[in-house]
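Input.
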Amino acid sequence: IERAAGPDFDGCWTTLECRGGELPPLEGFTARLVTGSSSSVLDDEPWMRPLMVALRAAVEREQPVLGLCF
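Output.
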């Protein structure tokens, strides 16, 4: 995704691993881009609910959220 944005993108990227342990704080970001997972949307992995809550909070604050696949 960073490569596709190209050299003209003047923002910065932060990659967070949300599948293991505690969810990192998501405050302080301008937007959120969520990419695919090796888990199924039907799985009930421990990291899914905290991430869902954090992403819903971002949407409620009218911050951009883009989810690609699951």
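The chain has a mean pLDDT of 86.
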